[in-house]
From TrEMBL, chain A:
Pfam families: BPD_transp_1. Belongs to the binding-protein-dependent transport system permease family. InterPro entries: ABC_transporter_permease (IPR051393), MetI-like (IPR000515), MetI-like_sf (IPR035906). This is ABC transporter permease. The chain crosses the membrane at residues 21-44, 85-107, 119-139, 171-192, 213-238, 270-293. Residues 81-294 form the ABC transmembrane type-1 domain. The keyword Metal-binding does not apply. It is a multi-pass membrane protein. PROSITE patterns: ABC_TM1.
Length: 302, 283
């Protein structure tokens, strides 16, 4: 850089306030690697961007809504959509129920060793997803797995978890609940600890039993947080990918094929980047819809 | 369940305490069992690991599975790749997000509120949306199959900026003002006063970024096609497609992948939980 250029740059910097200089690097990175690509994805979804366009942009042409029309007419897309919705809508209540139940257990007075329980219960959430999915492939193995052995003890015949299209998604849900409950458990525990003891005491004085105390003190006390974690979990579960990729490769009979799996395969295996961008935008529309519910519910509860 | 009651209390534990204790013991076994079995099986010789019915504990423990991984499956290389990627992501994330988070909390500048509102609104955008164009961008920048390409999504993150801002809001203005009156430049204020006081939240952001980068799968899968650059999740996913029958070997691979992050979490748990509870923004 020449001396003059450097001096004029420095002068320019002096006119900016220090705050601008402090935020500029982060915002520049966000713009180049996050916001601009979002706009890029939007444009891409209206083009026939494929492996030829990847080599030379001259091979690119705009095709309007064709990608969206072809997606909405594709049985594979609807299959992936249905599977993803199944995973999210069944997996979320189960995950939240386990998280809330264990948060309540951890919040019970008189129970010792709480830090130990909390740490161990949080372990699965920290564990690397791909490695944990590999362990669970063996856990739910038809002959060999501990899940079938456990079920055998209570007289349930063995289930071909990953080989039977009816059981593959339940197996992945079982794994996801194990993997994720710890996160929401800690958030709900913090919310439970904020409920004043006097509320429980006065409910008890009024003759409320445990179930009634749960319904009238605990649930209202945590409901804003419960809503928030439930909606964040639904949104997270709609981004299902690594679990089926490692455990089932989307099978058997595409029973665990997800929207994100579809985007990955379409975009990075068959190089239909335009078509895959349309899938990404439909997923985005779903997530926006969920976040609107979140804003509405926050207004109701806050 | 006697041992999980508070020691030193002579009266009988109440019914809710007993139920909660029992539930916690069962849940803890359920949570820990797969990880325990993974570790235990990784030390089993082939005959024991593949024995039916499955065994809990190795009779003749061996390091053969680990030896095979490191000698013939390039595991050492993948460990170094993962370590390098996670450290690079952490360093860059701290550099970009701490300066920006502090400025959004404590420095006055034109357009601050508007910019911040825009960032808040952008939180709803999922990272996957950027992946297809980002792949094209990195291809043109010749960053595919590089470590830098893998850490691009971690460099500057909305979560990181919010986390640091939230914490920096609590710094007393008088402290910063005093340094300015003494003639310190904004950079000196940041270096000498702000950074030392932000250390706890930097540890939090550091652990979050390290764990996220170490555990990440989809983005590295897209950026890295040359297996010389594979991180551990990619390497063991690929290994599982060829060696699924070799259960001891797979479990050793899973142990090498999971153990470092579990240990890091246990050591820095306090800092991790702070980040988790602060605003509960998913990163």
């Amino acid at each position: 850089m020449s001396y003059d250029l450097r001096r004029s740059l420095l002068l320019g910097l002096k006119h900016l306030s220090p705050g601008h200089v402090f935020v500029a690097p982060a915002l520049l990175i966000l713009f180049v690697f996050f916001l601009a690509p979002v706009a890029g994805a939007f444009v891409m979804s209206f083009t026939d961007f494929d492996i030829y366009a990847l080599a030379d942009l001259k091979n690119l042409s705009f095709i309007g809504f064709d990608n969206y029309i072809s997606l909405l007419g594709s049985p594979l897309f609807w299959k992936a959509f249905g599977n993803t919705a199944y995973f999210a809508l069944v997996g979320t209540p189960l995950s939240i129920a386990v998280s809330l139940g264990l948060a309540m257990a951890l919040n019970t007075p008189g129970v010792g060793l709480k830090p130990v329980f909390r740490t161990v219960l949080f372990g699965p959430y920290v564990a690397t997803l791909v490695a944990a999915a590999i362990i669970w492939r063996y856990m739910v193995d038809f002959q060999y797995g501990w899940v079938n052995r456990g079920l055998g003890v209570v007289g349930v015949p063995p289930i071909d978890w990953l080989g039977d299209p009816h059981w593959s998604m339940p197996a992945i849900i079982l794994f996801a609940v194990w993997k994720n409950f710890g996160y929401n458990m800690l958030i709900l525990l913090a919310a439970l600890q904020k409920i004043p003891d006097e509320l429980y005491e006065s409910a008890r004085v009024d003759g409320a039993g445990p179930w009634s105390r749960f319904l009238h003190v605990t649930l209202p006390g945590v409901s804003p947080v419960l809503w928030m974690v439930a909606l964040l979990t639904v949104a997270g579960y709609f981004q299902l990918f690594a679990e089926p990729y490692v455990m089932t490769q989307g099978g058997p009979a595409q029973s665990t094929f997800s929207l994100l799996y579809y985007m990955y395969q379409d975009g990075f295996k068959y190089w239909n980047l335009g078509h895959a961008s349309a899938t990404a935008f439909i997923l985005f529309a779903i997530l926006i819809g969920i976040s609107f519910i979140r804003n509405r519910s926050q207004e109701t509860f806050a | 369940m006697i041992w999980c009651m508070k020691i030193g209390r002579m009266k009988m534990p109440s019914v809710p305490t007993l139920i909660a204790g029992t539930v916690l013991v069962f849940a803890t076994v359920w949570a820990a069992f797969p990880l325990f079995w993974m570790t235990s099986m990784s030390f089993m010789p082939e005959a024991e690991a593949n024995a039916f019915p499955a065994r809990l504990w190795p009779v003749n423990p061996t390091l053969d599975n680990y030896a095979e991984l490191f000698a013939y499956q390039h595991m050492g290389r993948y460990v170094l790749n993962s370590l390098f990627v996670a450290c690079l992501a952490t360093a860059l994330s701290l550099a970009f997000n701490v300066t920006a988070g502090y400025a959004f909390a404590k420095l006055q500048f034109k357009g601050r509120e508007k910019l911040f509102q825009a960032l808040l609104a952008a939180l709803v955008i999922p990272g996957q949306l950027t992946m297809l164009p980002l792949f094209f961008l990195l291809k043109n920048l010749h960053l595919l199959n590089t470590y830098v390409g893998v850490v691009v999504p971690f460099m500057s993150s909305l979560f990181g900026i919010f986390l640091v801002r939230q914490y920096a809001l609590s710094l007393p203005d008088e402290m910063l003002q005093a340094a300015r009156v003494d003639g310190a430049s904004e950079w000196q204020v940041f270096r000498r006063i702000v950074l030392p006081n932000l250390r706890p939240i930097m540890v939090t952001l550091g652990v979050f970024t390290f764990l996220a980068a170490w555990n990440d799968f989809l983005w590295p899968l897209i950026v890295l096609s040359d297996d010389g650059f594979y991180t551990l999740p990619l390497a063991i996913a690929a290994l599982s497609q060829e060696h699924l029958q070799d259960q001891g070997l797979m479990m050793a691979g899973a142990t090498v992948t999971i153990a470092p992050v579990l240990i890091l979490f246990i050591l820095l748990q306090r800092h991790y939980v702070r980040g988790l509870l602060s605003g509960s923004v998913k990163g």
